[in-house]
Each structure stands twice: as structure tokens, then as C-alpha cells.
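Input for the complex:
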Amino acid sequence: MKRPLMLILLFIILLVLAFIMAMCMGKYSVTPLDSLRIIFSKTENIPEMSINVVLGLRLPRILASMLIGAALSVSGTVYQSVFRNPLVSPDYLGVTGGATVGAAAAILLSMGTIYISLFAFIGGIGAMMLTMLIPVLLRNNANVMLVMAGIIVGAAMSSILGFLKYIADSDSQLASIVYWTMGSFSYISMSDLLVAVPIILIPILFLMSISYQIDILSIGEDEAKTLGVNVTLVRTLVLLSATLITACSVCLAGTIGWVGLIIPHLGRLLVGPSTKRLIPLAAVTGALFLLIVDTVTRTISTTEMPVSILTGALGVPFYCWLLYKQRKELI
Amino acid sequence: MIYEIQQLNYRYPSSDRMILCDIDMSVSGGEILTILGKNGAGKSTLLMCMLRLLKPASGKIMLDGSNINDLSERDIAKTVGYVPQIHIPSFPFSVLEFVMMGTASGLGFFEKPSKREREISYQALEALGIDSLSDKPYTNISGGERQKATIARAIVSKPQVILFDEPTAHLDYGSQLLVLKTIKELSEKGFSIVITTHNPDHALLLGGQSALMSSEGSLVVGKTDDILTQESLSRIYDTDIRLEYIDTLCRKACIYSNL
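Predicted:
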């Protein structure tokens, strides 16, 4: 069997093992066998408490961390390919900033969690549309223009967020906003997941189906055109799909940094730059990475730590190692 | 006729200076056309217009009988191969993967290259004598090898014409000749060739047709032997240039008169 396939298979096995372990770990421990029996509805002789913990608390957040890990990694992968820049992350076009502003606005208006998610989603998509609109208004379709537009929109969003924080009630609302921006899987319910799964999985499958167009685009826009690729169409479809995925992840779990930047890098080291192999590998390794991070954050201390603290703490040494491995290629 | 260009004008948006001025030119089947001109005269711009990467201010470009504006990217890619100036791409695709991208114009939107495309691409590598590099990252091979890989990519789609943008730039003295030889062989196999270069000697070696582009963006086209004269070259480059017949080589060569 070929190496990329073997690697993907290996990571799937690791993911399944990590999934079973995550089910058992936590303040209330459950044996691996029991947790498997609970999932497959063979619940004779198992304490009610175990069933509630596994099905009610752990399963949704474990599935959520895997889904969001896969989502951010795939979205980071295709952003990096389209922008031909391995240092790009999914919030490049202001998606995350917009989503945060949306969520903060909903918190300020004292709305419920569903509305916070909805506002975050609208904010994220809105910011991205604004970014895409600037090159159209200036009639310049170059990549650099889009990047600059992303920086402008990102700056505008962080300024608006600053203002919202400034006028927020410092006792309750400000804390909620700050906590939201640090990311957490604790409030995700099974019904949230049912909505999110198609919004995330369908674009991922679509991106996999046009992976060859993405590969050619990653060589350069003019060259891609001369090779017969409809650059504007492919780029728009890729950015829309990736933004949908990112916005959906952000509104489920807040902003989670580093994953979308690191995982594609790791994937490229393992299977090379072809997105046909890279997208599935990034999905599986990203899911594994965030599952591990989330399991650690909820077991390491009595009060739960925001996810971004650990992704950052793990991300820095990991990124240093990646840079060390690639030091000869960076000039 | 592969290309027929009539009254082509080009200027960059928000600029008054005409880069290309009333250009009339045609390329017929199996012909080599070498375009010479100063830096910034508009040689690459002309190629960009011929690939529809730039939109001319006015004029008409007919590609294989159809107006280029009526064709899709895929149609153009099937007829025209393009070898851009050497550059290092951001991602380390293998040489074979890179060459295989030339087959994209024959694939559907959702299609991925199969065994057939892999074989065609490998044959193209063999034809250029770089099949031993097929698994190496494209980012880690020499400039000459990279140029050959790009040529291989241009021929896998079996185009009628191949455009080369300064294929010898950044190459050492020996590699330049190897690339020219490859281009000549491609012409003998029936590909039409359009090439830009800074070295008039390359035009003499390739023979065929030549075009001289003036700094004002106008173009004079004709048989290389007629077009390339001591006077025309000296005028184009604003320098004293000699065309000498070398008896031992039995050919004309282009050299500087002195410093």
C-alpha cells in the first residue's frame, strides 16, 4: 500500500483509540469497555451516572472537538494553497474577527446562546464578503489585493470589538466576551452538532472533489489560467467553502488559534503538497489534535481551561520544530 | 495559421504610455518566431496578450481560427502551451506531479489525473531526458532542469503552439544551448514556437522568423536572415553590434564590437 494511504489509516486508528480514551477520562472515570457499550446502547448493569456522563456530557464535546479540528485544518490547508503561502490561517480574510464581533454584539444585547452562534456566523460571513468586495470595488483581482483587504477588514473588526468591550458591562458581559474569544467546547449540545455536521462536512467533501483544481491554482494564478483552470471560479468556490467551514466552527466553539496553521504544515511534511492527499490527512490529524487538546483541558485542572491557551502552548514548540525542519527551504 | 494578430494595442490601466503599438503578426504551423527587444519593450506583454492573461486596449487576436475572447481557459490551454520564466513555486510538488498539471486542460472540473495522464507525463519527462528526476521535489532541482520540466509540462497537452518567455534567462552558458536545442527539436516535431530572448545569437541559431520590438512598442517581423542586420540590431539595442560570418562554424554570429 502507498505511504499516504497508510498514514491516513494510521491516524484514523489513533483517532479511534483517542476517542475511546477521551470517553473514559475526566473527573468521573468510566472503563473503556463500559463507554463502548454505552455508545452502542448495550446499557445493562451500567450505572445511570456513567450513561449520563458519557452520552450527555462527553460525547457531544468529543465529537465537536473532532469536527472543529478537522474543519479548521481543512480550511487552513486550502487557504494556504490558494494564497500560495504556508503562513496563512483560516482567519486570513477577517472571518474570525467578524464572527467575534457578531458574538460580542449578541452578548451585549443579552441574547441566548443560539443567537450568539447565529450572530457569530453572520458576522463571520459578513466580514468575509466585505473582504471579497474590496478587490471588486477597486477592480483589481490580484491575490495581494485580497490579502490587503483581509488585513483592512480584520483591523476594522478588532477596532469594533474593542469598542464593544469598552461599552460592555464589566462585571458579566466583558467576561463572557473574553471567554468566548478564547474558545471552549463545553456548551456544545448534540442538537448544535446535528446542524453543524452538514455545514462542515459537505464543504469538506466538495473541496476534496475539486482538489486537483486547487493544486494547480497553488502553482500561481497566471500559470493556472494557461493550464486551463478557471481561476476566478475555483478561487471563489474554495474561499466560500473554507469560510463556511471556519465560520461554523467559530460560532460553535469560539476562536481557536493555531490549528489551521500548524496541521496543514505537518500534513505537507508527511504526504507532500498535493491536496488530494493533504485534505483527508489534515482532517484526520486536525481532529486528533483538537480531541487531545480538549481532553487535556478538561482533565488537567478542576476548573476548565480555555482551549486556545493549550493550542497556543502546544503550537509554539511545534511550530518551532516545523521551522527547524524546513529551515533550508526558507530563504 | 495558428495566431493572427491585427492592430494590437496595449497600455497598462491608468497609464498613457502605449506598451504595444499597432502590432500585426502571424504564426503559422511548425514555424519558429523569435522576438527580440530591449528590457521593458513589451516582449512579455505581447506573450501575455497572446495567452489572454492581459486584455489589449484594442485589436484582434485570432487563435486557430477563433477570436481568443470567445474561447474558454481550457480551449486556449489545449491549443497553446506556455513556458513562463523560471521561478520557484511555494509548494514542493514532485517533478512528475508538476508536469502532470499540463494534462489539466483535458480533464473535467472534478476529475483527477489517472494512470493514463501519469504515463503521458512520464513519457514527456523521458523525451526531455529528465525522467530520473520524476520523484524529486520541483523546488530542489537546478534551473536548467526546472526549465526542462516546465517544457515537459507544456508538451503533455499536445498544443499546436508553445510560447516561451525568456527560456534561457537565469541559465548558465551550457544550459542555455541545451534549452535552445530542445526548442529546435520541438519545432522539428511540428510544434509552432514563439520565444522571447535577450540574445540575438539565439535568433540566428534557431533560424526561422524573427521579430524586432522597438522601445515604442512597434514590431517588425520577417525572415531572421532579412530582419537581423547589423543596423537593425544596433538601432534596437542602442549599441554597436556586429554580425560576423564565422567560416569555421559556417554561420553568422552576433557579437559586441567592443566595450
